[in-house]
Write a structure and sequence with these properties.
CATH architecture: Alpha-Beta Barrel
Number of domains: 1
Mean pLDDT: 92
Helix content: 40-55%
CATH topology: TIM Barrel
Largest sheet: 8 strands, parallel, barrel
Strand content: 15-25%
CATH class: Alpha Beta
Radius of gyration: 18 Å
Distance between the termini: 33 Å
Strand order of the largest sheet: 3-4-5-6-7-8-9-10
Shape: globular
Structural class: alpha/beta
Low-confidence stretches: none
């Protein structure tokens, strides 16, 4: 197998170790032309996985336009659970059905490779009517596989249910709850694990001052990782995530095509040396990270 690719658990899908996350371009209003350039750079760099969601602004719609006839070149994931464009409760079965169909229209395809629940609460996961919406979509050919994007108790519940093919979860130098929680269990069940926020939103950089990154900035202030002062700090952070046992791939969002190649170059360096990896883990524990919840 290509060393830059891994099998996404029980799905059998071969995916690049770095995936493109569509939240930044979606919320940032990136148009289809600019997005097309990013996708071209992704393809040229060996990236074949795209992750988006119906609630990411116009991200799905612009992505569908940018993909055009290149749909077959990518493993396409999206998420449902936020009725952004429709009236009604996010998690009502009817709204979920409409959301899934809307996603397919936005993306200009008759199916996605993985349809994921988006940050459901435990009580939602335990509602059989909600799960049936996803399984019906799969059985109808609208999704090849089903997954769940969750953290904390939601992630543990999703794994324990034994029905999801993939788990998307926060894993980074500033977010390690999953490494002692859901990740080992997901690995035992053969689930494909997609790490989100794998470089902790680069929250140590002076340019990262949005409220979304605030929890990671606070944590990193306490963690005081020396390697983040180096030029290769971001690469080391990404390699930490990819080194974590059970992680299949990491999705990184960007509005700059050049970042795609940078991320793949970091991934090609391979996992962190075990001593470096364990130092990061030890620092997390000593700084109080054991009590820090995974960020949704």
């Amino acid at each position: 197998m290509n060393p830059e690719r891994r099998v996404l658990g029980k799905t059998g899908l071969e995916v690049s170790v770095i995936g493109f996350g569509g939240s930044e371009t979606g919320y940032g209003g990136t148009d289809s032309r600019a997005l097309g350039q990013i996708l071209a750079a992704a393809h040229d760099s060996g990236v074949n996985l795209i992750d988006t969601a119906e609630c990411y602004g116009d991200g799905e719609l612009q992505l569908g336009r940018a993909l055009g006839g290149r749909r077959k070149d990518f493993v396409l994931l999206t998420k449902c659970g936020h009725a952004r464009t429709m009236l009604g409760s996010d998690w009502s079965p009817r709204m979920l059905e409409k959301s899934i169909d809307q996603s397919l229209r936005n993306l200009g395809t008759d199916h996605v490779d993985v349809m994921q629940f988006h940050s459901p609460e435990v009580r939602t996961l335990r509602d059989s009517r909600v799960l049936e919406v996803l399984t019906r979509a799969r059985d109808a050919g609208k999704a090849r596989f089903i997954g769940c994007s969750a953290d904390g108790a939601g992630a543990l519940e999703a794994v324990a249910m034994g029905v999801f093919d993939t788990l998307q979860i926060s894993i980074s130098i500033a977010d390690q709850e999953a490494l002692d929680g859901a990740l080992p269990q997901a690995r035992e069940r053969g689930m494909g694990v997609i790490a989100k926020r794998p470089i902790a939103n680069a929250a140590w950089l002076p340019t990262s001052r949005d409220g979304y990154s605030a929890p990671y900035r606070q944590r990193l202030g306490k963690l005081e990782y020396d390697f983040l002062k180096r030029e290769d700090g971001a690469a080391s952070a990404l390699r930490f995530t990819l080194s974590s046992p059970g992680v299949t791939c990491a999705i990184v969002g960007t509005t700059k095509a050049s970042r795609i190649a940078e991320n793949m170059r970091a991934a090609r360096l391979g996992g962190l040396p075990s001593a470096d990896y364990e130092r990061i883990r030890a620092r997390w524990r000593s700084a109080g990270g054991a009590s820090w919840p995974g960020q949704r």
